[in-house]
Specification:
- The protein has about 300 residues and is of the alpha/beta class.
- It has 9 helices and 8 strands.
- It has an 8-stranded mixed sheet with strand order 1-2-4-3-5-6-7-8, sandwiched between helices.
- β5, α5 and β6 form a beta-alpha-beta unit.
- The relative contact order is 0.15.
Length: about 300
Amino acid sequence: MPFSPGIQARAIQLLLGRVMSRVHKDLRFTDIPKRTESLRVETGAGPVTCTVYRPPTTAEAPAPVYVNFHGGGFVVARPEQDDHICRYVAAKAGCVVINVDYAVAPQRPFPAPVTQAYDVTAWVVENGAAHQWDGSRLAVGGHSAGGNLTAAVCRLARDRGTFTPRLQILDSAPLDQLADPATKQSPIAKPLLTPQLMRIFTAAYVRDPADLTDPLVSPGLADDLAGLPPALVLTAEYDRLREEGASYAKALEAAGVPVTERLFEGVDHYFTHTGPVPAGKEAIDLMATALRTALND
């Protein structure tokens, strides 16, 4: 008798969580000092702990702000895996970075992570004065599952008319949770993401199959994209998620949303964390440059 997706997801958390969140030693930017503090934000799906990265003391005050959502298949809760990106962006883009430790499945499936991601971002917008950042100049972004949450946050903000991010960053994001992972091809024989692993992630995160077409679960299936924030979409040549990222970028552009799409050749899923180092550094610098431009325009 096969184990349930929930049990398999818990096994991944216990046995593979640390491995999945490793960052290449030459991508850690340990030469960049970090100024961090912790804060706790109340949301409609429970309290969320966030790590705040401050820009250099020479940066303007109050600085603009970037809200970051880590990856991990909606199952692995290790926000520290994005420490290298957060410290680089804070230093190079001159902004405050909020790294969000959102809830994960199977303990907290959809819609809890979406609710937390949106509520934290809305709180950041409204509480800048008390924390020395400018909530009116906001961007959001994420990596893998965090990119999916980024798209959901932007959609909710547009539909509710609450705030408008100046930029959304989608790095190797899963955007179509309905399609069978086996149909998502890679040009290499053994890409990082296997169909079985992807099925475990999706089944743990989305309990009701009817929700797989919800635009907050599968943003790539939505056909009403007008009015969403400008986007930076990063894809990797060997990643099984490459095509849905490219398709979403084209759909955003067709809906009148300004889009910068960048395909990185010769790399696989999560290369911004695992390398190759030159491509990873180039992608992270592209994020920081895009944020600096968007937040200071």
